[in-house]
Specification:
Blueprint lengths: L3 H21 L2 E4 L2 E4 L1 E2 L3 E8 L22 E3 L22 E7 L5 E7 L15 H5 L3 E5 L4 H5 L11 H16 L5 E11 L1 H10 L10 E5 L7 E2 L5 E2 L3 E2 H10 L7 H5 L3 H5 L9 E2 L8 H6 L8 E6 L4 H7 L5 H12 L1 H10 L8 H24 L2 E5 L24 H4 L10 H19 L9 E4 L15
Helix pairs in contact: 10-13, 11-12
Length: 475
């Protein structure tokens, strides 16, 4: 029989076997179990870590539920499934609430960046973005999934949380970061929430939500200002937010064939996906998002933290090129009249006159001013934030198959300069610009200051570009 001393030694060795691997960097203990990632000579990567229970069955259209702890070591070497979507690639997975962590090789108390992906609240995944550059510059970076389309923003009378389940997923991911990121070498008290497009809008929403108080200390909003507005005709604008009551009424009228939540939760994934065109706007008037973010900002109901907000100089060129055929002067005026009404169209024409060629070019400039540049300017004035403009004149194209058009610094074109995205490779001056942008984002995450004065706008481009006047008084 072994002695008591021997037994104690054996128990201690067994208990410390996994933490010894943790010291080597391959295995980390989270609050629900151990995870093992992959390691290179530059970084550690952990992919596919569950941060909430699968939102399936009775958990469909519920706030994210706690993860059930697991035994042993969870292999975290590949991304979790993409949330159900008809994007490219498509997915039918409801069990999709997973996140990914990328860290420097030797990390301790590093600033943390939490990325919310774009995709119009209907597509995308956190794993689409490689965060190697930001990690190599000293940050711990988290990318997260969240429910999309009808799975994330459906509402129904009597359904708690109607229209805001995707936002709650983001909040749950931030809660996971607060409870676990120190084990990965991150500082849970120095967290920057950032995102582009719908991820930028999500960052705006979380900036105004009382539920996220203390969960992040800085925010970066890329091409997704809270005040985003799209022309809807005769001085009407369409915003990316919906009132909970409107979402619930839409849910009751939607063609799903159900009269209660139990029936809705039994619908096949394919049937729920058919509802996505009706449900792709986060709802306010909810616990996740009590106020319309536009109202909250104007009334000062947001976290008073450092914000870096900006857009691409030619945001709307991609959308205009896809939505309109080549326009002459008459077609340009008709497009403005349809979008803004006759009187406003004349004011816009005076500020953005026809150029004598393809008039989609001035149309793009006018719509960019309304939807992005001017609304971001308003955000900066409300939050006393820092501003940037991505103005690289010839960035690589990340959207395949688009028609020929002078896209310039189009919506999303800054992404390959900050992340590994869409298989794009940068060369020469663009690599140097990428390094500069990564350093600015890193400095802001570290200190809350990007390196220039508040309310000044830093222009990112490989060469000097001409000034652009956005005529913000038009809107």
């Amino acid at each position: 029989m072994r002695s008591t001393t021997t037994l104690i030694a054996a128990v201690l060795m067994a208990a410390t076997a996994v933490p010894a691997a943790e010291a080597a960097g391959t295995t980390v203990r989270t609050d629900t179990g151990f995870v093992s990632g992959t390691i290179t000579d530059a970084q550690r990567t952990f992919r596919g870590i569950p941060f909430a229970a699968p939102p399936t069955g009775e958990n469909r259209w519920r706030d994210p539920q706690p993860v059930r702890p697991w035994h042993g070591v969870l292999k975290a070497d590949k991304p979790g499934p993409r949330c159900a979507q008809d994007g490219s690639p498509a997915s039918d997975a409801e069990d999709c609430l997973y996140l990914n962590v990328t860290t420097p090789l030797h990390a301790a108390n590093r600033p943390v960046l939490v990325w919310l992906h774009g995709g119009g609240f209907t597509s995308g995944a956190g794993s689409d973005y490689g965060m190697d550059q930001l990690a190599r510059n000293g940050s711990v970076v988290v990318t997260s999934n969240y429910r999309l389309g009808a799975f994330g923003y459906f509402g129904f009378p009597g359904l708690a949380g109607s229209g805001a389940f995707g936002l709650r997923d983001q909040q749950k991911a931030l809660e996971w970061v607060r409870g676990n990121i120190r084990a990965f070498g991150g500082d849970p008290h120095n967290v920057t929430l950032f995102g582009a497009s719908a991820g930028g809008l999500s960052t705006c929403a979380q900036l105004t939500s009382p539920r996220t108080e203390g969960l992040f200390q800085r925010a970066i909003i890329q091409s997704g200002p809270c005040q985003l507005a799209l022309p809807a005709g005769e001085h009407q604008v369409q915003r990316p937010w919906a009132a909970r009551e409107d979402v619930e009424r839409a849910g009751a009228r939607a063609p799903h064939g159900c009269t209660d939540i139990a029936c809705l939760r039994r619908l096949p994934v394919a049937e729920v996906k058919k509802l996505t065109p009706l449900f792709s706007k986060p709802a306010y008037g909810t616990e996740a998002l009590p106020e319309n973010p536009v109202t909250a900002l104007r009334q000062g109901h947001f976290h008073k933290i450092p914000v870096l907000a900006g857009t691409a100089r030619d945001e709307l060129t991609v959308f205009v090129a896809m939505a309109y055929p080549k326009l002459d002067a008459t077609g340009y005026e008709q497009a403005l009249t349809q979008g803004f009404g006759a009187a406003q169209a004349q004011r816009i024409l005076a500020a953005y006159p026809p150029r004598g060629g393809d008039e989609r070019i001035p149309l793009s400039a006018a719509l960019t001013a309304m939807t992005s540049a001017c609304t971001t300017e308003e955000l900066r004035s409300q939050t006393n934030a820092y501003g940037y403009e991505f103005a690289e004149p010839e960035p690589p194209m990340i959207f395949p198959g688009l028609p020929e058009f002078p896209y310039g610094a189009y919506h999303g074109s800054e992404l390959p300069f900050l992340t590994r995205y869409a298989g794009v490779e940068l060369h020469g001056d663009q690599q140097r610009l990428s390094g500069e942008m990564v350093r600015v984002w890193t400095r802001f995450a570290q200190t809350g200051r990007p390196g220039w004065a508040r309310r000044d706008v830093r222009v990112f481009a490989t060469r000097e570009v001409a000034e652009v006047g956005y005529h913000c008084d038009l809107w």
